[in-house]
Write a structure and sequence with these properties.
It contains 2 helices and no strands. The protein is an all-alpha fold and 58 residues long. It has a domain of 33 residues. The chain is elongated and about 50 Å long. It starts with 6 loop residues before the first helix and ends with a helix.
């Protein structure tokens, strides 16, 4: 399985550079980035806590 975690960020940069500029001054842009970062952080935390539990079971 390919690692696609960074695809949304690369897509944002690509669209900003080629198709239509991203309006960085808008709140929605920063909200989207903050939500994506929050989901990535929660995902990392879930994986880290699961790995810790697995190691404790061995």
């Amino acid at each position: 399985m390919k690692d696609t975690r960074l695809l949304p960020i690369f897509a944002l940069i690509w669209v900003d550079a080629t198709v239509k500029p991203v309006h960085w001054e808008l709140t929605g842009t920063w909200l989207w980035l903050a939500l994506f970062a929050g989901m990535a952080g929660v995902g990392w935390w879930l994986v880290a806590s699961t790995r810790q539990t697995v190691w404790e079971m061995k």
